[in-house]
From TrEMBL, chain A:
The keyword Transmembrane applies. It is found in: Cell membrane. It is a multi-pass membrane protein. SUPFAM superfamilies: MetI-like (SSF161098). Belongs to the binding-protein-dependent transport system permease family. This is Peptide ABC transporter permease.
UniProtKB/TrEMBL annotation, chain B:
This is Peptide ABC transporter permease. The chain crosses the membrane at residues 12-37, 80-103, 115-133, 139-158, 201-220, 240-265. It comes from Microvirga aerophila. Signal peptide: none annotated. Keywords: Cell membrane, Membrane, Transmembrane, Transmembrane helix, Transport. It is found in: Cell membrane. Coiled coil: none annotated.
TrEMBL record, chain C:
The lineage of its organism: Bacteria, Pseudomonadati, Pseudomonadota, Alphaproteobacteria, Hyphomicrobiales. GO terms for cellular component: ATP-binding cassette (ABC) transporter complex; outer membrane-bounded periplasmic space. Gene3D superfamilies: Dipeptide-binding Protein, Domain 3 (3.10.105.10), Periplasmic binding protein-like II (3.40.190.10). It is found in: Periplasm. This is ABC transporter substrate-binding protein. Its main location: periplasm. One of its GO terms (biological process) is peptide transport.
């Protein structure tokens, strides 16, 4: 187990390095450089040259990359080129916002989705399952920009129950924060729940047709326990994987929701940084996204390892 | 148990027919689009933005006063052709590399797998934003982008399917006969993985539609006056507050097509299950 | 209407008594002609002057362009919210009024020499920086001259070029020497870039100014929180205690936020959002008529855009009425392919108004010999309404048999990689306080913003001469010629001038439109108040 984790951690580090190089190259080939973009419409050749010099952009790319890398290894995320403030400071609030949105959504959506998926799987083929399946499928196939826009229109503009934008004022209290977050969380919960519930149903319904379940039935185990004990244990691996992917998505992939609700999160920061060619910030965001994904998958893998049906199903059977 | 199976089969038929119907309609609209549009999709048919539906302008007009139905038909063609080409490319790339990695193993497998991990670890939509910022938005760039992004996922599936088979006897026999990897790939492995890969194809295509729509929604899609479904939603989103349905129709098109593709896959899967059970 | 216009103009001039003798002010002032526009448009002015302002409260503004480039360095301002941050934290020598005339601020009055090459400004005494130090003339001189410095990389470098020196002459008098005469110097020193900062400031992370507010929190790309400066030199101002700026880049989301009361002011309403806000009971559409424009420009130094007939054909392929009605929802004015607004006293009414004319377009196309060659026009979401105007043009072009294709370019690198570097491209200009400033920036040889690379010796001479021409009749004639040259060059298709259309909560009082920008010319935080 330990060697498995160690191996995966090493792989992760190599992967993160590769990502950072890829992102660096990506930013280098973007048209327009940071000085040009920062000065925008007003730039003269002289202006741009002056700013480039000021920012140290005259150094070769590999040199800038290496000094960045050395900085990271020493725990220094560097300084934003455009704002001249430490990247860590710029990230902190956005990271908190993104984390909050992802956390609340996960806490609501995951249990909801698992229960829903389980109920659908148990009732596989019945009217309840059929209709729930259609609804869940419909929601998972509806673009989030439609769900979000309709939610704003209904709850914020028409009914005036909730704010249209998820802007968190400094020092806003719990109820204010909760109100501000309600609509983006609702939108994401719908999207994520639908995805996870669908997969849960598929996985568990599939497991229920496996021979060991039939065996348990023959042994006279009440059906509820079959589902609860066997299927769920066997499904931990794949379910963990799906939940992990969805959490990673909540951290890095919610650009559309951030746009609709003007929520200052990490994805939006990265887009702004790309537009401003602010390399240190782009790098930091890319690393956070990539690390989240890899760590989530790692946790899922470890869980899957612990609950490997091939090693555990037998043991579980014997206990009955 | 038998009873449930019967219900299931009836349900399957219904959803299967529904999905085939939708996909069929979409395909026909995409193919015959230029001949069935009531108006030129770039022509102004009303002087007011978001005109109400009327005879001849069945779904009303868009934000510039163009016929929404015609633009929707035109957008169907754009959306589906782009998604189809992207998915075909993703599968060509992903299947070949995945099966190759499974068959050869060793460093070939390791290298391709790590590259796939790399691609999968980056958020798709942000990769899209960066690439479009670098290369500009054109049909070619977006299709290639979607193809590469989804090839990584396809690769993992194909590799997993391939790995299951590699240990099996008939592959070993073929290897011992001295068959080349190309031959084994296409005549021995491929027939066994074709069906799950076909199911993956349909799912992947629905992902591609959603992905490209999201890019278009963020303003990174095809060049105007051409618009795919996501682009149509974006263009007309401002009308929503005023009660116009202009952004709803293309969004519904995205949802319904995506549902149809998913139902198709569900049915393929369950039929497979039944076949195995029988 | 013309009576009102004249009266407004006279009032405007009468109030600006200080400095220049009355007569020459009248002659010089080209104050954006907006003088007439405001009065003529019968614009509702939010907040009656009779109601007494009340103190206190927080005002929240949603800006449209989110970027981590947010700055307090006036040399690097690029967006509307930068200007607003700037006018809130810093003071200026002068400010523009509703008629486009300069009004005293830190400078109490000003006086030019005979040929307007040497200007003496009387500086208001006793102004303090927010850190407690006293404002000196050295600080003001630095604030202007720093824009000449290479390392500052200022956007005002071109404009500061005509300033030879800035120096103190006695305790409260500052003298500016010019290279060539400029009768509009009091306007120039009031532009956003010339924010008054402390001598030797190059780092603006923690700005220190003499303005109505001080910074409480500044998070680029997220928010700016400003609180009342207790030592502000204007007695009793500002009225509000706190001012907060954050971003809602999506136009529909911005309008929604105003409608639901989450914000008090928003920069830029679009499309249906305008109608929704107009219908609402708690917010209003705040319109500032202006000569801001989005144009399709041709780079005349390369093929195929050096083909004058092709360019003129494009000018006849825009349905200006449709642009105004459909794209702008009526919030604009039809233009005639040159940057002078129709309400300006300098407007050349002898030039025939160009309209959609497929026959004329075909005639020019025939002459141009373009045939079926593909003509690409670059537009961008970063250039307001250019994607829509481009689509209208594309449609008419296909009718006239021209193979015109649109390229939507990424907004972020548009100004560095597209504008001026492709044959046809959209550009967007805010109005300048004077037309001469705009002409200098956009139509002079080698000017940074001369995106068309259009060079014409006669035009060059007219722009320079008109800056120093004292005779109004002669000046009018010079401007007529300038417009005719630009009109006939085909270098620019300018279909419509765009009003600034913003949204303001009905609680906000004291806001008046100033025609150089959104929401009171981006300069309003020290005069607005919240109702009861």
């Amino acid at each position: 187990m330990l060697s498995f984790i160690l191996k995966r951690v090493l792989q992760t580090i190599v992967l993160l390095l590769a990502v950072s190089i890829l992102v660096f190259i990506g930013c280098e080939i973007l048209p327009g450089d940071v000085a040009q973009v920062a000065l925008g419409q007003f730039a003269t050749e002289d202006n741009v040259r002056a700013l480039r010099l000021e920012l140290g952009l005259d150094r070769p790319a590999y040199e800038r990359y290496l000094s960045w890398l050395v900085g990271i290894l020493q725990g220094d995320w560097g300084q934003s080129i455009t704002t001249k403030t430490p990247v860590a400071t710029m990230l902190s609030e956005r990271l908190w916002n993104t984390g909050l949105l992802a956390l609340v959504t996960t806490v609501v959506a995951v249990p909801l989705a698992l229960v829903l998926g389980l109920l659908m799987a148990v009732g596989a083929g019945r009217t309840w399952d059929r209709s729930a399946s259609i609804v869940v499928l419909g929601l998972s196939a509806t673009p989030e920009f439609l769900i979000g826009s309709l939610a704003v229109l209904l709850f914020a503009v028409q009914l005036r129950w909730l704010p249209a934008v998820a802007y968190l004022s400094p020092g806003s209290g719990f109820s204010q924060t909760a109100r501000a977050l309600f609509l983006p969380v609702l939108t994401l919960v719908i999207v994520v729940t639908a995805q996870i519930a669908r997969m849960t149903r598929a996985i568990i319904a599939n497991l229920l047709t496996q021979p060991f379940v039939e065996m348990a039935v023959l042994k006279g185990v009440p059906s509820r326990r079959i589902v609860g004990v066997h299927a769920l244990i066997n499904a931990v691996g794949p379910l963990a994987n799906i939940v992990a992917l969805n959490i990673a998505y909540l951290v890095s992939g919610v650009v559309v929701v951030e746009t609709i609700f003007a929520y200052p999160g990490l994805a939006g920061l990265m887009i702004n940084a790309v537009q401003a060619r602010d390399l240190p910030v782009v790098q930091a965001c890319a690393l956070i996204f990539c690390a989240t994904y890899v760590i989530m998958i790692l946790v899922a893998d470890i869980l899957a390892h612990l609950y490997d049906p091939r090693s555990n199903a037998q043991a579980a059977m014997e206990k009955l | 148990m038998l009873n449930v199976a019967a219900v299931q089969r009836r349900g399957i038929r219904l959803t299967l027919w529904f999905s085939i119907l939708i996909i069929g309609i979409c395909a026909l609209v995409a193919i015959f689009g230029p001949w069935i549009v009531p108006h030129d999709p770039t022509e102004f048919v009303t002087d007011e933005p978001f005109g109400r539906p009327q005879v001849g302008i069945w779904l009303g007009s868009d934000y510039l006063g163009r016929d929404l139905l015609s633009r929707l038909i035109d957008g169907t063609r754009t959306t589906l052709v782009m998604a189809l080409v992207a998915t075909v490319l993703a599968h060509l790339l992903g299947d070949c590399l995945g099966l190759l990695a499974a068959l050869r193993g060793g460093w070939v497998d390791a290298v391709i797998s790590r590259i796939a991990d790399l691609i999968l670890s980056l958020p798709k939509i942000i990769v899209g934003l960066v690439i479009v910022a670098a290369l500009g938005s054109s049909v070619l760039v977006i299709v290639m982008l979607a193809a590469v992004v989804y090839a990584a996922g396809v690769f993992r599936i194909a590799r997993a399917l391939g790995s299951d088979l590699v240990g099996m006897d008939f592959i070993k026999v073929a290897k011992s006969r001295g068959e080349g990897p190309g031959w084994i790939l296409f005549s021995e492995i491929f027939p066994h993985v074709a069906q799950p890969l076909a199911a993956d194809f349909a799912i992947r295509m629905s992902f591609a539609i959603l992905f490209m729509s999201s890019l278009s929604f963020l303003g990174l899609g095809v060049q105007p006056p051409l618009a795919d479904w996501g682009g149509l939603v974006r263009e007309n989103l401002g009308g929503l507050a005023g009660g116009s349905l202009a952004p709803i129709f293309p969004a519904m098109a995205i949802a319904v097509t995506s549902i149809a593709l998913n139902l198709l896959v569900d049915n393929i899967g369950e039929q497979q299950l039944q076949k195995k059970g029988a | 209407m013309s009576d009102e216009t004249d009266k407004a103009k006279q009032n405007g001039h009468a109030e600006t008594g200080a400095g220049l003798p009355h007569v020459s002010r009248r002659m010089f002032n080209m104050g954006l002609l907006s003088s007439s526009m405001i009065a003529a448009s019968g614009l509702p002015i939010i907040g009656s002057a009779l109601a007494a302002p009340t103190r206190g409260g927080t005002v929240r503004l949603a800006a449209n362009q989110q970027s981590t480039n947010d700055t307090f360095d006036s040399a690097k301002y690029v967006k509307g919210d930068d200007y607003i941050r700037g006018t809130s934290v810093f003071s200026y020598l002068t400010r523009l009024d509703e008629q486009g005339n300069p009004q005293p601020e830190v400078a109490r009055s000003w006086e030019p020499n005979e040929n307007a090459t040497r200007w003496a400004f009387k500086i208001r005494p006793g102004i303090m920086f927010s850190d407690g130090t006293k404002l000196s003339i050295d600080d003001i001189a630095f604030s202007i001259l720093r824009h000449k410095e290479e390392k500052v990389a200022s956007s005002a470098k071109q404009l500061v070029g005509n300033i030879k020196s800035v120096a103190a002459d006695g305790p409260d008098t500052m003298v500016i020497e010019l290279e060539t005469p400029d009768v509009d110097l009091p306007v120039l020193v009031g532009i956003f870039q010339f924010a008054i900062v402390k001598k030797g400031t190059y780092d603006f992370a923690k700005p220190i100014g003499t303005g109505p507010f001080v910074v409480k929190e500044f998070q680029p790309g997220i928010r700016t929180v400003l609180v009342r400066n207790p030592t502000y030199w204007k007695e009793g101002r500002p009225y509000i205690d706190q001012f907060e700026i954050f971003f809602i880049p999506d136009a529909a989301a911005r309008a929604n936020a105003l409608l639901s009361g989450d914000v008090d002011m928003i920069i830029e309403l679009r499309g249906s959002g305008i109608e929704e806000v107009a219908k609402s009971s708690n917010a209003s559409v705040f319109v500032t008529p202006s000569t801001r424009y989005t144009a399709i420009q041709a780079a005349v130094d390369r093929a195929p855009s050096n083909n004058q007939d092709l360019n003129l054909a494009l000018a006849y392929l825009v349905d200006r009425k449709r642009v105004l009605d459909t794209v702008l929802r009526g919030y604009g004015t039809i233009a005639n392919d040159h940057p002078i607004g129709p309400k300006s006293p300098y407007f050349n009414s002898a030039l025939p108004q160009r309209t959609l004319d497929t026959d004329k377009a075909k005639f020019h196309l025939q002459k141009s010999g373009v045939g079926q060659a593909k003509i690409e026009v670059s537009v961008s979401d970063g250039v307001l309404y250019s994607v829509d105007i481009g689509q209208l043009m594309q449609r008419e072009a296909s009718r006239a048999g021209l193979n015109l294709e649109l390229r939507r370019e990424p907004a972020d690198s548009y100004w560095s990689a597209v504008a001026g570097k492709r044959p046809y491209f959209a550009t967007n200009f805010h109005p300048r306080p004077t037309y001469n400033m705009l002409l200098n920036l956009a139509w002079r040889k080698g000017a940074v913003w001369n995106f068309s690379h259009y060079e014409n010796d006669n035009l060059e001479k007219l722009i320079i001469d008109s800056r120093a021409t004292l005779d109004p009749a002669k000046r009018k004639q010079q401007y007529d010629e300038i417009q005719a040259i630009i009109y006939n060059s085909g270098a620019m298709v300018l279909p419509c001038f765009l009003n600034y259309v913003d949204g303001v909560s009905n609680k906000i009082k004291g806001l008046t439109p100033i025609p150089v920008g959104s929401l009171g010319g981006f300069n309003f935080t020290d005069r607005i108040w919240l109702e009861g």
